[in-house]
Design goal:
By secondary structure, the chain is mainly alpha-helical. The chain is built from 17 helices and no strands.
Length: 412
């Protein structure tokens, strides 16, 4: 039967009051996250005038995600997930506000920025699996695809608004105030989360920390489909999403626009992503998730090469919007598939491993920064798109057959 888009199906997860409050809190956090990342890239570029240092700052953020991500899932499975969110957001906000105060006092340097980037990356690697694990408890298995799409709808809507706001504030007020704003939004995100009701502790006994870590790693490695999905996430983050790290360089040095133009370029991607997730949410539970994931990622990789080749700002805006739509679909499908493939007892740890792969965006950004400093940002971005296409060509059949939530997949 052909699946039709439905607004009622698209908003199904909002029937849960707890999910509505969680969505609102995460929306505010994402605004803080986007503002801080964009401000970090522009601040490093301003201080150093070097694509290499922009990439290094992003790489340090990624190292924080990877190192904290190994342990964050155990924390999420062992503790009340709401409290993990509350305290993590407060710490994120204090770091952002503290950096803003240092900038205003004229006391900030590159070492301090690298330390803040490392800590913010580590905190994010705990906050994201905690919020996703709560989502599964609130909406249930049958609505996890819809909730994943609505999560990302909020993410990209917040990114669209936050990127434009950040660009305007940096251009017209300065970098100190934009970091203060990022810190304030993270703290405000705690307020709606206080209204989320439910039991969010793991039902199983809690093994010792290292044993729990090994248990999560073993569960991810032994499941062939989980291993394949997490592998795709590493490749896409490393060579695809890492292009965002070089957007400040592309905006200033290739397209010839300033901080405000950078904000609009990032917002165009967010606008396309918002539309993409709204469309995906309205389709409900999609059966052929793997095939749709593969096709959309191939198209996004091709557009990444197109973005690298574009010398015109208007064309880059259009490509960014379409690529945002495709990458939003990728994100929603990946999030739902990881949730559906994860056993309940280790869900937090599996989700933490998934978030850990996000750190490869920043690691890839560091490598791209090195390439850009030698051969230019367009070549660095184009190479990433090419590597993605090569990997996707090799994994076409096994990825396309994945159908979590539907009937069991056939053996290889």
């Amino acid at each position: 039967m052909k699946r039709r888009w439905s607004s009622a199906a698209g908003l199904a997860s909002f029937q849960s009051a707890g999910y509505r409050w969680l969505w609102a809190g995460v929306f505010l956090y994402v605004m803080s996250l986007v503002i801080s990342r964009l401000a970090m890239g522009w601040l490093v570029l301003t201080l150093t005038d070097s694509a290499y240092w922009v990439g290094l700052a992003a790489g340090v953020d990624g190292v924080g995600k990877i190192l904290f991500g190994l342990f964050g899932g155990v924390l999420v499975d062992h503790q009340d997930k709401r409290r993990v969110l509350w305290y993590g957001l407060l710490l994120y906000g204090l770091l952002g506000a503290g950096l803003g105060a240092l900038i205003e006092a004229g006391a900030v340097g590159v070492p301090a920025l690298l330390l803040v980037a490392f800590l913010l990356g580590g905190i994010d690697s705990v906050l994201t699996p905690a919020s996703n694990a709560i989502v599964f408890h609130l909406v249930g298995r049958e609505r996890v695809m819809n909730a994943a799409a609505l999560n990302l709808l909020g993410f990209y809507a917040a990114r669209t608004v936050a990127a434009a706001v950040a660009g305007i504030v940096i251009a017209r007020v300065g970098l100190g105030p934009v970091w203060l704003l990022a810190g304030l939004l993270a703290v405000l995100a705690v307020l709606p989360l206080l209204r989320v009701r439910g039991h969010f502790m793991a039902a199983t006994e809690r093994p010792p920390f290292l044993a729990a870590l090994r248990e999560g790693l073993h569960a991810a490695w032994q499941d062939r489909d989980l291993r394949r999905v997490l592998g795709l996430s590493v490749i896409t983050e490393l060579f695809g999403f890492s292009h965002f790290v070089l957007i400040p360089v592309m905006a200033r040095d290739v397209l010839g626009v300033g901080a405000e133009g950078l904000g609009y370029l990032t917002s165009a991607s967010g606008l396309g992503a918002t539309l993409g997730t709204a469309l995906l949410a309205g389709l409900g539970d999609i059966r052929r998730k793997g095939a749709l994931l593969w096709g959309g990622t191939v198209a996004a990789a091709g557009l990444l090469i197109g973005l690298a080749a574009s010398p015109w700002y208007a064309l880059s805006l259009a490509i960014s919007a379409v690529m945002g739509l495709l990458l939003a679909g990728y994100d929603a499908l990946m999030q739902a598939m990881v949730q559906l493939l994860s056993p309940d007892a280790v869900r937090g740890r599996i989700l933490s491993l998934y978030v850990l792969t996000f750190g490869f965006t920043s690691v890839g950004g560091y490598v791209a920064g090195i390439i850009a400093s030698v051969a230019g940002a367009p070549l660095a971005i184009a190479l990433g798109g090419g590597f993605m296409l090569a990997y996707l060509a090799a994994e076409a059949r096994p990825l396309a057959r994945l159908k979590p939530g539907a009937e069991p997949a056939p053996a290889d």
